[in-house]
Amino acid sequence: MYLRIEIAPEDRPFHRFLWRDLDQQKVPEEYEFSRVVFGVNSSPFLAQFVTQQHAETHRTEYPLAAETALKSTYMDDSMDSVTDDQQGIELHKQLSQLWKRAGMQARKWLSNSPVVLSEIPPEDRASEIDLKEGSLPSIKTLGILWQAAKDAFTFKVQPPDNHFSFTKRNFLSKVATLFDPLGFLAPFIIRAKVLLQDLWAAGLDWDDPFGEALVRRSRNWFEELPELAQISVPRCLQPMKDELTISSSLQTFVDASEDAYGSVVYYRNVYPSGLITSVIVAAKTSVAPLRAISVPRLELMGAVLGLRLTKEISKALNVSDVVFWSDSVDVLWWLRNASRRFKPFVANRVAEIQSLTSSNQWRYVSTENNPADLATRGVTASGLACSEIWWQGPKFLKKPESEWPENLIQASSSSQKEFRSRGRFSKAETNKGQESTNCGYDK
After folding, report:
1. Tell me: the pLDDT tens digits for 347-406?
2. Which of 55, 138, 165, 170 could disulfide-pair with 69, CB 3.0 to 4.6 Å?
3. Could you tell me which of 343, 341, 257 has the C-alpha nearest to residue 296?
4. How far is the C-alpha of 205 from the C-alpha of 200, rounded, in Å?
5. What DSSP character marks residue 85?
6. 0.90 surpassed by pTM
7. Coarse DSSP helix, strand, coil percentages of the chain, rounded to the nearest 5 percent
8. Of 9-23, 213-227, 320-334, where does mean pLDDT reach its minimum?
9. What are the residues facing 281 on neighbouring strands?
10. How far is CA 73 from CA 42, 51, 142, 143, 295, in A?
11. Closest CA to 254 of 146, 387, 364
């Protein structure tokens, strides 16, 4: 893609270089790059800007292609979904014509529809495709393995060999090979994150060998990596493709433990037939700070993390109906009070949540029905693969709202007084004169 974008003549002197073909006796010749250069810090921005501007310029002629280029393209890879085969064929045609206008060629096409692939010239398909065999390959998209035939994501990672040296440098390098941008494996990866934090707390240098206990924990985690191949995450967020949805909503669950806090978001759809589906969209976790911090405050940090994650998902999916779930009564009561009543740590986070949501959007869920609990405590790879609550959310999401668990938190003043009388409202968090705590293709 870079070499198809020309540098303006007046800017070429800034991309000048000398060349003498390894002959030290030869007087160097001067050259100037006429195309965008690999390795220059600004090159990725320039390439993205030019391609997006090109798509915007031709949006009227190629509306489908322009939408894909602007919203579903990462560098030179485009990944998008359409409703049927005919629209898929049309998208291929428009994208091919759009990039041809820019002197580029869309190639390495892959689709889960053989009908669409049959309309794409063989030389432009991904090299692994052979329609005569009747099967579609699995390829990596942004680090995740996509099984085109099943239209599902999966993971394939091998543990280190027997000669692996357990040092902080090597451990971090191996963990980084497990790329999970959507957080599907959050309950499994959080165990490695906590272990990494323990390595820092132990004061180990980058190449210091682990102690016996750390080696055992690390080896146990690595040995579970092959079991991730059992996981298959459906890519489609609306399983009933032939039915229009009556309503769609995001269901966000947040939680925290002494080791970590996190959030997981589900996409819930209600269909005319009465069927209700719920599928995982994304999750995110973070380890708890090393300094001492109360679990209720960690729960509040998890709520903020869930809010920010949901905000991005809501923008991407264009869904405005959002419900948040927490098993922390403290957090739910903080959100039903004025943020100015609390000390800065709580006040700032409560204010951020209140600026984007209303207290009625936050509901109570028991710990056993909170899938975010898995993301903060960690599970094994095999346990994650068969965890229905993690991949689809709690069972009540597939029921009408009238059958959802009763929300224990009520906004009435009488309920607040009753709750305070039971000693569940933390006076330590109120600010009563106390000192504040500062806290698929390539072009």
Report:
1. 999 999 999 999 899 999 999 999 999 999 999 999 999 999 999 999 999 999 999 988
2. 55
3. 257
4. 8
5. H
6. no
7. 45, 20, 40
8. 9-23
9. none
10. 18, 10, 11, 15, 40
11. 364
